[in-house]
Recover the amino acids of this structure.
């Protein structure tokens, strides 16, 4: 029986995220991550951003670290950001291995990360 344990929910063969953030979305997301996560030390970071088609107020931001690692603060692997009413983006959650399905509205995490975990709360 599965109850009482974490349950993985996968999304396969359905593409519900945009590959590319708009230039304005990218500037806002990268600016926020650069300031708040890396404290301006992000020379080695390549930002990979996917915006949810389920709810375009949410984006998955992956951090790809490239050599040389000079003037660079290494950090977590991924973040989920949410667009505010003022059209700014703020980090909602971060993870390095698995995402909780309940970290955002229904379907958003699966649309971005392709899978998530339903955990007992």
């Amino acid at each position: 029986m599965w109850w009482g344990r974490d349950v993985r929910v996968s999304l396969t063969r359905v593409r519900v995220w945009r590959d590319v953030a708009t230039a304005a979305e990218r500037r806002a997301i990268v600016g926020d991550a650069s300031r708040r996560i890396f404290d301006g030390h992000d020379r080695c970071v390549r930002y990979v951003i996917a915006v949810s088609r389920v709810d375009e107020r949410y984006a998955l931001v992956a951090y790809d670290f490239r050599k040389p690692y000079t003037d660079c603060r290494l950090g977590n692997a991924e973040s989920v950001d949410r667009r505010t009413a003022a059209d700014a983006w703020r980090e909602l959650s971060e993870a390095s291995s698995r995402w909780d399905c309940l970290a955002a509205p229904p379907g958003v995490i699966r649309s971005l990360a392709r899978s998530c975990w339903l955990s007992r709360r």
